[in-house]
Amino acid sequence: MNAPPEPTVRRARLLCVPTPIAEGRSAHSDLPQDAITQLVDIDYVVAEHAKTARAFLKQLPLTRPIQAIEVVELNEHTREAEIEPLLDPIRAGRDAMLVSEAGCPAVADPGARLVMAAHRAGIPVEPLIGPSALLLALMGSGLEGQRFAFAGYLPTDAKERQARIRELEHRSRRERETELFIETPYRNQTMFDALIATLAATTRLCVACDLTGHRQRLRTERVEQWRRQPMRLEKVPTVFLLLAD
Asked: Where exactly does CATH 3.30.950.10 map onto the chain?
């Protein structure tokens, strides 16, 4: 008589958990139920800021009080030597949740350093389904969706920003590739004005503001049209996309 098989021991994971990208949205609005179900027993969270992470946790049907959940911060000030110890609770058998301020962690986000450390340590990494401003903007732009690149933040210095815009436009024209980038909300108007002043008249420019939020605006025009009918941008999260002819 054969012995029963040994039970499979599930290894603790690093769960990359998207959070709502617009004010007023909740986890139940933006995450599928099966993703939420995986989070109910979490007791260890790595976040860019603890305060906003706890606000997100309060939206989840957790099996323990918020006070019993360990929340540690990983942000741009975290030293490299401090990254590896953040994995110790996972090595001890506790699933960990990685969250950013909004949207997908580790995308334009310091959490990428923890994900890479997890890979080096052989810890399973599992990204969960949730909102991504970049993909939502690309979906709604009508621009090239087969080839695209994310350029992050552009320089704040006016001359450097202008040079970078021209560089991205040249790359887009050469590669037939949509270029995506973002800006700090209070500089949205400065970025938009620089774009319509610098780009060629025939280049297509999409401005995607406050996606999924109540102030959402999503519009794609050639730059020549934008110059005739410019937009006044609010100080809300915005994705810019361009595609040059």
From this structure: 133-243
For residue 11, what pLDDT is reported? 86
pLDDT band at 39 (very low <50, low <70, confident <90, very high): very high
This prediction has a pTM of 0.89
Pull the structure tokens for residue 78: 């975290």
Lateral strand order in the sheet of 125-127: 70-73, 44-47, 96-99, 14-16, 125-127
From CA 144, how far away is CA 190, in angstroms rounded? 25
CATH class of 133-243: alpha beta
Of 58, 61, 46, 56, give the one whose Cα is nearest residue 123: 46
Could you read off the pLDDT of 175-196 as tens digits, one per residue? Answer: 999 999 999 999 999 999 999 9
128 CB-side CA count, 13 A:
26
Superfamily of domain 14-127: Tetrapyrrole methylase, N-terminal domain (3.40.1010.10)
Task: Tell me if residue 199 falls in helix, strand or coil.
Answer: coil
